[in-house]
Amino acid sequence: MKKARLILFGSLFLLGCDKIEQKGQYLAQVPVFETMESIRAKANAISTPRTITQAGKIYIYQDYLFINEPNKGIHIYNNTDPSKPKAISFLNIPGNVDLAVQEGRLYADSFADLLTFDLADPTAPRLLARNENVFKTVLQKDYINNIPDVVVTGYRDSLVSYAYKNKYSPYEKKYLEYNESNSGVGQGGSMARFTLANKHLYAVDHSTLHLFNVQDSRNPVYVKDVKLGFGIETVFPYKNNLFIGSNTGMLIFDISTASEPTELSRYAHIRACDPVVVNDKYAFVTLRTGSACGGQQNLLEVVDIQDLKNPTLKYTYSLENPHGLALSDQTLYVCDGDYGFKSFDASDVSKIGDKLLENIKELKSMDVIAGSKSLLVTGSNGLYQYDYSNRTKLKELSVIPVIKSN
Fold first, then answer.
1. pTM given for the model
2. Which of 124, 141, 254, 235 is closest to 188 using CA atoms?
3. What is the pLDDT of residues 257-273, one digit of tens each?
4. Any idea what the Cα angle at residue 265 is, between residues 262 and 270, rounded to 5°?
5. C-alpha R_g of the chain
6. What angle do CA 11, 14, 16 make, to 5 degrees?
7. How far apart are the C-alpha atoms of 176 and 138, rounded to whole Å?
8. Which CATH number among 3.30.420, 1.10.10, 2.40.128, 2.60.40 corresponds to the domain 23-179?
9. What is the distance between the alpha carbons of residues 44 and 110, in angstroms, rounded to a whole number?
10. CA nearest 229: which of 252, 245, 206?
């Protein structure tokens, strides 16, 4: 009986396909477009705390915790006591994916714009400045209606003429995907695309490093764009250098002169998603398979960076599906996606694979920050905070759950 049902369903499906093809149409995920003028007209309203339905980038600054909800805005928590984080506000920002905080100013993207907020009162951040159309790679063209400089705000199922199949590349669901002395600067995770260093904001998208001078923290000044090549994913600052992860390698830039990033080298690896963290001697790079990145292997790579102009692969270790990672002294924390959260003794990088300290298999993890008060781990089910004073045994302090909408 079950077999008969499957045959019948398959027949109906094929008939349905034939019917669509006869009309010269096919079913596709069609982007929903909106102009930036329309988006700007929607005030960046502050609302009372609300349920998190999807956790994106995380960021900590002083006693505050910021959780991005992709393309919707930022949840703000008072995290004075990590065992009892208190939600205090939600900042509605259409098209927001990344953020960074310095000296009481919150910088956040809103599709093509950079927004600056005053955090003097975190329960009601105040918009100070809007740099318009500085992230130009977000802007697209609606080929059907011939409208330039629009952004994709969502997708809907629709029947589409075959005449547009090759012309209208936005049918591929990818555009939303592209949108972790510094006293007073907050801390982001290894998946961050925004970072602050030397009174400058560095923001990467899939092909470009965008540079802003924030010496006047109220009013960022666009400096320039630096073309990096395609597949750029993350940016990690360390001392006077930027380590930029891409799906084909790691780029190292000298930012001693903050307004003039100078490329020092490129380290190439197999095609894969690629977050990076570093210390004085080594860069730790996770490579994973994924639809957005391609790639066929899931690895942790240890790269010798003592000569920044000649990074050299030293060791590789197999993992299941590694995402973000963090270093704290001699401990390396790795988010292994749906396979859990792992910590390793990294005091001897040649033996990391033999020195697993802990594996929390039930913790689906995406990114991690080793903060001053707690270890913060985010994943599909929420944000977890741990006491990590005992490096061999994490102690759960609190959970901010993700309540997925139906």
1. 0.87
2. 235
3. 999 999 999 998 766 56
4. 135
5. 22
6. 110
7. 9
8. 2.40.128
9. 10
10. 206
